[in-house]
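>> received
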Amino acid sequence: MSAQPQRASVTFLGVEPVEVLRFVSGDDVVFVTLGCARHPMSEPTDLHADPVRGPRAELVVRLHVSVPLPGLHKRMATVAAAPAVEGLILAPDALVDLSEPIWDGAAPTALLLEADDLGDLALPEPMDPVRFLRAVPITANEAAWVRLKGADALREAWREAGIDVMSPERSAAQL
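>> returned
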């Protein structure tokens, strides 16, 4: 993987900037958010959210380098800012529907989250570790399948169809 990533910073009104790092590793590209885990995530209705304890996460998108991915960093930053802006809790098997292409001109409009190979990053006690969550781009039909049958059912459909979820040009699973 490239030692020096490309960096993009996105700022939202009232929220600290979120950076998106882009690493190239052979024929693959890895995007990682930086800033989502600054504060623990909490429900928006929790008036007494703990400022130290609570889940923290960063997003990871892994794709093959086969087409340009314009706008992907902005969409990732938007999702990474959602815990601070909307009280969204990012966790494995969560479905995040952007209702717009994940990158300009893309078929996927949603992300399915799962634990990433990066594992967790321990923080000093009493803070919870930062979880790195792989955000897999999925189509609107696949998102509907997740809502109906669950994340594992979609992953099984991908396995059965031999779908490479790292391909930005992949077709949707036939559900």
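>> The chain has one domain: 6-161.
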